[in-house]
Amino acid sequence: MEAHENGKLSQNETALYDRQIRLWGFEAQNRLKSSRLLLLGICGLGAEVAKNIVLSGIKSITIVDSKKVTEDDFGSQFFAARSMLGQNVSLTGSEAGSCPLESHPRVSTRTSCLRLQRATASVERLQKLNPNVQVVVNDEYPSVNDMDVEFLSGFDVVCATGCSRSQLQTLNDKCRQAGRKMLAGDVFGFHGYAFFDLLEHDYLTEVKEAVKNEASSQSADHHESGPTEAKRRKEETAKETETKTVENKMTFASFEESFSLADKDKLQKTCEGYFVSNSEY
Fold first, then answer.
1. I want to staple 40 with a disulfide (CB 3.0 to 4.6 A). Which of 160, 202, 239, 265 is the partner?
2. For residue range 166-184, what is the model confidence (pLDDT) as tens digits?
């Protein structure tokens, strides 16, 4: 399926994404098509995020996860094949042909050469979900601390899973320097948390305002048959409304500000998830 040269949706893409276009429109789908996402961690929650993002029709998703595939991954990670469990492949010398993903166009040579990491093991099945999306594995920055502002500037949104609090704070600081939006979250059994830093977000809301109908009001004054009738007519007039679109702006707090103990009194309700995400793990 090829897109039009002007970057708009092709006829085939319009048919493929028909259901979601009905939900959020062509403009939103075109913005998705031109967006680039960096995903840190593809175990459990990360795998679900990757699935939904790829199916939605984003331009590209780059995955960073240097951990090896383990037996525990098969309880929640549905992209890595069991045949890749425990594989540690080196493409040097006579072993150069032993990596099943060596020729995959979306896997960097360095990634496939050193070992089959969780991201590498997931790329093939993930790509099959939507051939229109570029699915890329990057292992040049195995740790959040290794990522620089220039690297993060190459994406529109950064999504982090499986990171510690200190890693998320470092990542959020760098994302803010790069002017990039950041999402983070994780799940611990029945508990979980989510963090959103969209910097500044402009959005529209519809507000209903009462409109006084002068004609109805005058008619009520001339034809009212008593206090009760006049009151009824005025109530009906007050019920007439019109819908107006209002522009709004929301400013998001940084990760550090969100967990500042100085602002703890602002929390209207403190749940268990706050303490889970506020601890080092």
1. 160
2. 999 999 999 999 999 999 9
